[in-house]
Amino acid sequence: MDLEEFRTLLARHARPDWTTAIDGVLISRVDRPDPPAPSMSGTVLAVIAQGAKRLALGERVYEYGAGQYLVASVDLPVTGQFTQADPEQPALGFGLTLEPSAVAELLLQAGLGDSPRSGAGAPSGIAVSDAPPALLDAVVRLLRLLDEPRDRAVLAPLVKREILWRLITGEQGATVRHLGLADSGLSHVSRAVRWIREHFAEPFRVEDVARLSGMSASAFYRNFQAVTAMSPIQFQKQIRLQEARLLLATYPGDVTGVGRRVGYDNPSQFSREYRRQFGEAPSRDAVRLRASARTPVGVLP
């Protein structure tokens, strides 16, 4: 499919806050490459019409460009960077929030025989593929509705449902289908991810989180690594450091206090791990964060 109409629609409707008149639909326009920056992925479909992006999840690196899509089925700590973007040819992308309830509804309608077994191993939480013509066509038809307010309320939910179906039956269908299964390995890991995010400042035992997520310790550890590319303790550290960075933008003069708030009792350990993650000491990074407004760089292209 020719991407020209896709690019034109995105450029016309792009806003500074990335929102649109269709619930769950986001449009990004970025005019320059940014240094790598951390964020949470959300559970989304992202399709690039122009430009390119690099995304790191633990030790895994994903690169996607025009005509490709990325699916994130778990809200994960990632580091993103636009690698191709300039004022004359800005990076342009489409994003759609993925709702587990909508996936589950489609799976029920299609028949659970087409879905993965509940005991199957969890897939990676992020996957990249070339976007097939049928998926791009549905995305473009959804964007056209931004120019048709009378039709939008009725047709947008139908087209979003079609997009979801294209994902479920497409190359990365296993990742998306797991999102809608209450007893899948990915759903168990998602439960643990939510718990760690809500209690990131607290120490925990992996065995206890495994029990909370409804898995044996060995199965939990294996599935958690498959989905997040990190161990549970590494995941907690990523969340702590991302939260610390957000706090430092507001409280740049209280590095020790910020470290304690995110779970570090040892200021030296906090500074050491912060520098390793972000390349600068907390105090220096805080000054830079206050002096510059950054572009959002999550999963959305």
UniProtKB/TrEMBL annotation:
Signal sequence residues: none
Keywords: DNA-binding, Transcription, Transcription regulation
Keyword DNA-binding in record: yes
Domain HTH araC/xylS-type residue range list: 190-288
SUPFAM superfamilies: Homeodomain-like (SSF46689)
Protein name per UniProt: AraC family transcriptional regulator
